Amino acid sequence: MITPAHPFYLIRHGETDWNREQRFQGRTDIPLNEKGRGQASAYSTLLLAEGHDWTRWHFVSSPLIRARHTMELLRDALGLDPKAYDVEDALIEVTFGDWERQTLTELRRKEPELMAAREADKWNFVPPNGESYDQARGRTRFVLESLPGPTVVVSHGGVIRAARYGLEALDPKIAADTKIPQDDIYAWRDGRGGWLRDTTTGGF
């Protein structure tokens, strides 16, 4: 289990062209597209509704450009210095190894047996020269348990899956298969977590 000492908001970066194409990104450094830039700025509306003094919060991002650009657009929309945030390497996306740059359709055609194995156990599956969601748990736990205070975190779908697994004791299949939105924010406070917009799954 992950036991954070402080509340935090966990945000997935905005959309990229590769997200739209269902192309594995992993640690390939892909920029936001126009929709993603709009999503990044729009996250501010959800945070402002929370009523905090954001000048007192810590902000930290994955090192990848799509996360950093999301953070900078978000901070700018909150009226904060876009560049005044920290970068944490352990928040980088799960790597898909040899599968990066390829689409789901391409891989189902070229690697049907491996793709079938992934579908059977997505949580533990390790792509060739890649990383499983389960393997990302340790670094995700380290970050969330080491936060210096209330924090806004911008990261990736794989990291958020690993976080929810550890925070909520989710079934591995649910943790791996549940879609991570790019228009909602995961909040952890008072010992429980949920999506700000989604009141059907224990959100706020």
Please compute the radius of gyration using only Cα atoms: 16 Å
Major sheet: 6 strands, mixed
The SSE string, one letter per element, is EHHEHEHHHEHHEE
Structural class: alpha/beta
Supply database-style keywords.
204 residues, alpha/beta, six-stranded mixed beta sheet, 6 strands, globular, disordered C terminus
What topology emerges from the helices and strands here?
Blueprint: E1 8-12, H1 17-20, H2 34-48, E2 58-61, H3 65-77, E3 86-87, H4 104-110, H5 112-120, H6 137-145, E4 151-155, H7 157-168, H8 172-177, E5 186-189, E6 192-195
Parallel strand pairs: 1-4, 2-3, 2-4
Antiparallel strand pairs: 1-5, 5-6
Helix pairs in contact: 2-3, 4-5, 6-7
Please tell me about this protein's structure.
By secondary structure, the protein is of the alpha/beta class. 37% of the residues lie in helices and 12% in strands. A 6-stranded mixed beta sheet has the order 3-2-4-1-5-6. Strand 2, helix 3 and strand 3 form a beta-alpha-beta unit. Helix 4 crosses helix 5 and helix 6 crosses helix 7. The two termini are 21 Å apart. The C terminus is likely disordered.
